[in-house]
UniProtKB/TrEMBL annotation:
Species of provenance: Photinus pyralis
UniProt xrefs under InterPro entries: Rho_GTPase_activation_prot, RhoGAP_dom
SUPFAM superfamilies referenced in this protein's UniProt entry, alphabetically: GTPase activation domain, GAP (SSF48350)
Protein name: Rho-GAP domain-containing protein
Family annotation (Pfam families): RhoGAP (PF00620)
Limits of the Rho-GAP domain: 22-164
GO biological process, one term: signal transduction
Domain of life, source organism: Eukaryota
Length: 250
């Protein structure tokens, strides 16, 4: 009996307490969406580590940490926690819909198919986790200030959490980013999320040319994950990092 319970728990992507903790962080971050640097600002690593620990164990200390007003650290901790889940946030067969070329198929149709499979195939806590994150990202897109120069502040750094992209080709990144934005935009309707009306965000979702900077940077970081597994010395990693940044003109 005990082994059966352990097998069931092992199949879960997240514990019930951790899911509750993630949802608490999401609610906290929603109250601070006026900040443009929520995904990009400098953070205190010690604070990020403390919040990440509480997310992993669903600890009661999370509320105390959030009361400190650590917005950037909370966003960074959420990103780190989701990146290090024991299973992919989105199952690989669903990811494939967005990662494949799909010539002649619009991003809207691809996004709708992805969300349809999420609703059909993702169950239990994993479904609630995906829904909570998409609901949060929808609110980010809707509430974050935009302007003609930079476009909408799309949380591009969240793409590797949803999709296991194994390429540095910027063209693929832009295509997947466009699909990702459509997934976020359509999620409230397709997944029946309890959020505000989606009409207010129509027309805001444009990936500006300036976003190439961020896309290149993420591609470099993904390459450096493999580099980091071969080189343990921080100085070596730093030199490789700067070399890669120079290669991509970042």
């Amino acid at each position: 009996m005990g082994n059966r319970i352990n097998r069931i728990l092992h199949k879960q992507i997240i514990s019930a307490r951790s899911l509750t903790a993630v949802q608490e962080v999401v609610r906290f971050l929603k109250r601070h969406l006026h900040r443009r640097d929520i995904f990009h600002g400098a953070v205190n690593e010690n604070r990020v580590r403390k919040i990440t620990v509480e997310l992993r164990r669903g600890g009661s200390g999370l509320s105390h940490l959030l009361r400190q007003g650590w917005v950037l650290e909370s966003a960074a901790a959420l990103h780190r926690f989701l990146r290090n889940l024991k299973k992919p946030l989105v199952p690989p067969h669903i990811q494939a819909l967005a990662l494949d070329e799909n010539p002649g198929v619009s991003p809207e149709v691809v996004a709708q198919d992805v969300l349809g499979l999420v609703k059909q195939d993702v169950k239990g806590r994993q479904y609630h986790l995906v829904s909570s994150v998409l609901d949060f990202l929808y609110c980010v897109l809707k509430e974050t200030p935009t302007d003609e120069l930079t476009g909408c502040s799309v949380p591009i750094t969240m793409i590797p959490i949803f999709f296991n992209i194994q390429t540095n080709d910027l063209r693929h990144w832009r295509r997947i980013a466009t699909v990702f934005v459509e997934i976020i935009r359509m999620a409230p309707t397709e997944l029946n999320l309890l959020t505000e009306e989606t009409s207010s965000v129509e027309g805001l979702f444009v990936i500006p040319n300036e976003m190439n900077f961020t896309l290149r940077r993420i591609a470099v970081i993904l390459r450096l994950r493999n580099v980091g597994s071969r080189f343990n010395h921080s100085y070596v990693r730093q030199q490789v990092y700067h070399r890669e940044l120079g290669h991509y003109n970042i």
